[in-house]
Amino acid sequence: MTSSAPRPSDAERLDLHNASIDESAAAAGHCGMTDLHTGRVCQERQDHVGSCAFVAPSHGPTPDTR
Ligand SMILES: [Zn+2]
Fold first, then answer.
1. 16-64, pLDDT tens digit by residue?
2. Which of 15, 27, 52, 64 has the fewest beta carbons closer than 10 A?
3. Inside any domain, residue 66
4. Which pLDDT score, from 0 to 100, does residue 31 have?
5. 9 CA from centroid of ligand 1 (Å)
6. How many separate domains does the chain show?
7. Cα 51 to ligand 1 centroid, rounded to whole Å
8. Residues having C-beta closer than 5 Å to ion ligand 1
């Protein structure tokens, strides 16, 4: 092996590159899965079990729990 591209980070979530994932929600530790039909975003934990709970984005300012 010669020069290989440096790996960005092991923590990088490849699913962030998916258009159906809300990056801001995912970055905040949420599932971030977006319902393409309604535009709602799942605000459950990143590794939550069960079905996604989609929340309408027009719910006001999202509480940032950083
Ligand atoms: Zn979800």
1. 555 589 989 999 999 999 988 888 999 999 999 999 999 886 555 556 6
2. 64
3. no
4. 94
5. 23
6. 1
7. 6
8. 31, 33, 42, 44, 52
